[in-house]
Amino acid sequence: MHRLHQLVRGILTALLLAVSSSALAAQATSTNAIGGLRAYWHVFIAYAVVIVIVLGWVISIARRLKDVEQRLSE
Amino acid sequence: MSITGVRRVGTFLAVVGLLGLGVVYWLSFFWVSTEASQGIVQRIFYVHPPAAWTAFFAFGIAALTSGMYLWLRDERLDWAALSAAEGGMVFGTIMLITGPLWGRIAWGTYWTWEPRLTLTLLLWFIFLGYFMVRRSTENPEQGKRFSAVVAIVGALLIPFIHLSVVWFRSLHPEPVVVRPDGPLLPGDMLTLLLTSLAVFLVLFLGLFMLRYTLEGIRADLQVRARRAAA
User: Fold this and answer.
1) Which one of A54, A64, A68 would you mutate to disrupt binding with B, by most B Cβ within 10 Å of its Cβ?
2) Which parts of chain A fold into alpha helices (H)?
3) For residues B50 and B58, what is the distance between their CA atoms, to the nearest angstrom?
């Protein structure tokens, strides 16, 4: 379980780094497209929402699994 | 496959799915071309439809296993239905948040009560009801049966959601991939969309299997508790 937590933490860090660098790269390009800078924010929020919700489910399952395994071992 | 085996495969698929998500993000920002008319906001396309299709797939599995549970009364089918319904809610929530974020820029509004959006929201609420019905009965077996019926009724909406944009005029565009005359997308966009869909499905299947494992261990705990009480 500890290894799973470490793994999730590592993947989360890698994904956040990927998203932030991607968003910065995107900001560097033209902002004349539809929606202007606001469009960049919406894309950033949408991609962040995916990570937050999916990782939320991962952590929720990991916690519940840890809980039932503890009860099973008692 | 034993519960331990399901857990191992589930963990493997979940890790592959999470890594795949990073690859999809990378491809989305650094590889695929920018759509000419919508610009950067069109990149939400690589997470919104895959989340929607994964949610519909999950709700479909929930309905299928619920129907089989009502027929065969095998507890494992109920575990599968519950796990799939939870996954459907997760990916359905992603769909319902990313869609309006795209719509605000592309259509000028976060939400409009047009058929596809309304039916999708209704589907989400029906599956929210699935969990409420499950917990609202004193007899757990009755809760499982009632919620199975809710899952089947909810999944009946999915074909209508797909066809609603063909039947009614609305802001939501007609399908650009699942069409009788083939996809309307340029090659790189279609490739990334299908890659993203594969990643979302792998992620769902991995987490679905881990969630199924959780129900299996819970059932084991209940059996032990009954034995201890007897």
Assistant:
1) A54
2) 2-28, 36-73
3) 12
Query: Which residue in the set B21, B34, B101 is minimally distant from A15, CB to CB?
Result: B21
Q: What angle is formed at CA A72 by the lines to CA A66 and CA B1, rounded to 5 degrees? A: 80
* A17 in contact with B, Cβ within 8 Å: no
3-state secondary structure of B39: strand
Please give the torsion angle defined by the CA atoms of residues A3, A8, A12 and A18, in that order, rounded to the nearest 10 degrees. 80
* Count of CB atoms situated within 10 Å of the CB of B223: 10
Q: How many domains does chain B have?
A: 1
pLDDT digit string, tens, across residues A28-67: 444 456 778 889 999 999 999 999 999 999 999 999 999 9
Name the residue type at position B172: H
Q: Are B203 and B13 in contact (CB under 8 A)?
A: yes
**Domain extent at residue B94:** 3-229
Residue whose structure tokens are 């319904």: B85
ipTM reported for the complex, 2 dp: 0.91
* Of B85, B87, B67, residue with least CA distance to B77: B67
Tell me the whole-structure pTM to 2 decimals: 0.86
CATH number of the domain that B159 lies in? 1.20.120
Q: Measured between alpha carbons, how far is B69 from B113 in angstroms, rounded to an integer?
A: 35
Closest CA to B148 of B230, B63, B85, B205: B63
